[in-house]
TrEMBL record:
Pfam family membership, one: Spc24
Main localization (coarse): nucleus
Subunit organization: Component of the NDC80 complex.
Identification of the protein by name: Kinetochore protein Spc24
Residue ranges of coiled coil: 55-133
Keyword hit for Zinc-finger: no
Record keywords: Cell cycle, Cell division, Centromere, Chromosome, Coiled coil, Kinetochore, Mitosis, Nucleus
Length: 196
């Protein structure tokens, strides 16, 4: 065989070796890829299992939180109801206290009314008795209360007026004769009135 043919054979053999090498390399890469894909799938499955476990735990925790929230709502509603009942009781007690105070005030006013009615009755009796008195005797009573005394004879006729100062240190006597009743009244009032 000629060199050229040998060379061609050699080239053919090299090509076949290269194809074989390429096929082996491709097969090896495919096998490595399958191994890598298998490992990756296992890792992915393991991670998916972890995620599922975490999700189940989260769902369980979420359900637990929802249940706790429901219990807290029920407790809150019970507290609000208790507060409402307590507020109504306090309001009722306040009304009772106000009623008691009002009742007490009413009783006090009734007692005061009775006292005033009694005083009015006594005053009416006094007025009725006073109406029976002589107007002069009433005037004399008023004058006596103001420090003016009348001088009378045994038969009851008035002869004069005696005035006493506020400090009881001076006594003035005025006869009734010769003066008009209007003049004497004016003079007596002026004498017993406080200085201006």
């Amino acid at each position: 065989m000629s060199t050229h043919e040998k060379l061609e054979d050699l080239l053919d053999e090299i090509d076949r070796g290269m194809e074989k090498l390429n096929a082996t390399t491709i097969e090896k890469k495919a096998a490595d890829g399958r191994i890598y894909a298998h490992d990756a799938t296992e890792q992915l499955d393991a991670r998916k299992k972890i995620m599922d476990d975490c999700l189940r735990d989260d769902e369980y925790e979420l359900e637990s939180l929802i249940q706790q929230e429901e219990e807290l709502k029920q407790e809150f509603d019970a507290v609000v109801k208790s507060c409402t009942v307590l507020e109504k009781k306090i309001e009722k007690d306040n009304w009772k206290n106000k009623f008691s105070d009002t009742e007490r005030e009413y009783e006090e006013m009734e007692n005061e009314k009775k006292l005033l009615e009694k005083e009015l009755e006594e005053l009416n009796k006094t007025v009725e008795a006073t109406n029976e008195l002589d107007i002069e005797a009433l005037g004399l009573g008023i004058y006596r209360g103001l420090g003016v005394q009348t001088m009378m004879k045994k038969d009851g006729t008035i002869t004069g007026v005696q005035l006493t100062s506020d400090d009881q240190s001076r006594v003035y006597t005025y006869p009734m004769k010769g003066y008009s009743a209007q003049y004497l009244t004016k003079y007596v009032w002026k004498s017993i009135s406080p200085p201006e």
